[in-house]
Write a structure and sequence with these properties.
The chain is an all-beta fold. It is about 0% helix and about 40% strand. Strands 19-22-25-28-31-34-37-40-43-48-50-49 form a 12-stranded mixed sheet, with no helix packed on it. An 11-stranded parallel sheet has the order 17-18-21-24-27-30-33-36-39-42-47, covered by helices on one side. A hairpin with an 8-residue loop joins strand 49 and strand 50.
Length: about 525
């Protein structure tokens, strides 16, 4: 999906390689004199676009205002009075400032978002109160309407660029009795920013003249969430939660959307994603925004989609009475799943076969990819595979980082029909003696990482290691192919059979840390 606040590339001056070739023609004989002149290309450095919203604390110091609750200010001497809105009043919030902490110039807008009906029991639409309140903000003595565009220069060294402003609300004098007794809360001051036409490339400073603002759709109720997810106007926008929400299955069909948990909880049977591009993140400082489910299909059930998870928590508590407990945290069929961070858990309440990432398959023509760049993955019960697929699923897995923990028997890092590449990770199995289960005609290539298994989890301790095999006799029940071809050191707390090592790879003796190290 298009990221409106994507970082521009700030390219420093460069000189490129020059190839000089001189040809001489003498009679019918061709002789070539060649030479090459090279000049180094200076570093390519991307710029940073970083905007912050700050407030003054009780000591008068500027601190982050994100996630804080602001109170409207009463006139001097009237601080103890209750704040009540009536036609003609104007209330102001404490002084705030917008700070450009990045090295790129930006333009910004201020908006009011996230309003919620504070008294739903009164059978009135309290949100209509916003229709008769005019919001403005004041910078340097000049008043601007909300959504007006302003500009901030880039930060220079330690000198930050900022605007100090005050948000004011004025209740229209024409507001009638229909607006009495209404109450709204969860209002948020939102600042959106994007790159400005200031810096120049090799031609001019107009290359980002069409840079869009990130559009945020605030959501505080289930009804609003369902409305925006079904809207034709949601593509390219971010749905941001401003309250905890409980729902049945939530369909996302044919959309290009981001979901910001914003530190809130979304309790749902499943987020059912079809034919969509979805990014899920948690912009809150706590990073406690959570999607939970007690359904066997997982927090996210995707098909024919591109799913990217940046942050957040994803937890399954499924434990159907009388069931063996087939359950997953995330399912992605015929899809591309990318995980850059977050926390993923099948809790101890879940029965056996509690997969964290499951790749279902309807036919061998379907193709799925799973890329894990970070995050923490925790599985508590038996058959708690981290990444697995149906027996005929065609899956490619790349693991570039992450922390993986399993506590049950037969709980592997991967068990997929396809190709697995592990460049780095930390895997710990306290109830299982091996890391990978490799099906027939499938491969696992290990280029880095640290792996710890429990060799005493089975009677025959000679079967422990990266894969289920006898250390002295080689392969026993191995169907696929394992290759340890280290780019970075591979550390395993059990010795690895030499037949699994790439040419030139060497395995050390057991170190004081309890690990064998494989290098090349």
């Amino acid at each position: 999906m298009t990221k409106a606040n994507s970082t521009k590339k700030a390219l420093l001056s460069s000189a490129f390689a020059i190839l000089i070739c001189v040809a001489m023609l003498i009679g019918t004989t061709f002789a070539w004199f060649t030479d090459t002149a090279k000049a180094a290309v200076n570093r390519i450095q991307s710029g940073t676009l970083d905007v912050a919203l700050e407030m003054k604390n009780s000591e008068g110091d500027w601190v982050s205002a994100e996630g804080e609750t602001l109170n409207f200010v009463k006139a001097p001497g009237a601080e103890a009075e209750e704040i009540l809105w009536e036609p003609g009043v104007t209330y102001a919030l404490p002084e705030l400032r917008i700070v450009n902490k990045g090295n790129l110039a930006l333009k910004y807008k201020i908006a009011i978002a996230g309003a919620k009906d504070a008294t739903p029991e009164n059978d009135k639409n309290d949100l209509m109160l916003l229709d008769v309140i005019d919001w403005t903000y004041e910078v340097g003595g000049t008043s601007y309407a909300l959504e007006s565009e302003k500009h901030l220069a880039a930060k220079k060294g330690d000198e930050e660029s900022f605007d100090t402003f005050t948000v004011k609300g004025h209740m229209q004098e024409t507001a009638n009795n229909d607006y009495q007794g209404l109450s709204i809360d969860s209002i948020a001051i939102t600042v959106v920013a994007t790159q400005d036409t200031v810096e120049s490339d090799s031609y001019n400073n107009q290359y980002d003249k069409n840079a869009d603002y990130p559009e945020v759709q605030p959501v505080a109720t289930l009804e609003k969430l369902e409305e925006v997810l079904n809207s034709d106007d949601i593509n390219g926008k971010t749905v941001k939660l401003y309250d905890d929400i409980t729902a049945d299955a939530l369909p996302v069909n044919g959309k290009d959307v981001a979901i910001d948990l914003n530190g809130k909880s979304l309790n749902t049977k499943k987020l059912e994603v079809k034919n969509s591009t979805v990014v899920i993140k948690d912009s809150s400082e706590s990073k406690e925004g959570t999607i939970t489910t007690d359904d066997s299909y997982g927090t996210i059930n995707a098909a024919n989609s591109d799913i990217t998870i940046e942050s957040g928590r994803f937890v399954s508590t499924y434990n159907k009475v009388g069931s063996s407990g087939y359950a997953s945290v995330i399912q992605a069929r015929n899809s591309n799943l990318t995980i850059n961070g977050g926390y993923f858990e099948n809790t101890d309440a879940v029965g056996s076969y509690n997969y964290l990432i499951k790749i279902p398959c309807y036919s061998r023509t379907e193709k799925s990819t799973v890329t894990v760049n970070g995050g923490e993955f925790v599985s508590h019960r038996d058959y708690g595979y981290i990444i697995t697929g149906d027996s005929d699923a065609n899956v490619d897995v790349v693991i570039n980082g992450g922390i993986f923990k399993t506590a049950g028997r037969n709980s592997y890092l991967t068990q997929v029909k396809g190709n697995v590449l592990v460049n780095d990770c930390t895997f710990t199995a306290t109830g299982n003696n091996t890391v990978f289960d490799i099906p027939k005609d499938s491969t696992v290539t290990v280029k880095g990482g640290t792996y710890s298994v429990n060799e005493n989890s089975y009677t025959d301790t000679s079967l422990a290691g990266l894969i289920f095999h006898r250390k002295t006799n080689g392969w026993t029940s191995v169907s696929g192919t394992l290759l340890v071809d280290p780019v970075n050191p591979v550390k395993v707390n059990q010795p690895t059979y030499s037949g699994f090592l790439a040419a030139g790879a060497k395995q050390s003796a057991k170190g004081a840390d309890g690990f064998y190290t494989i290098t090349k």
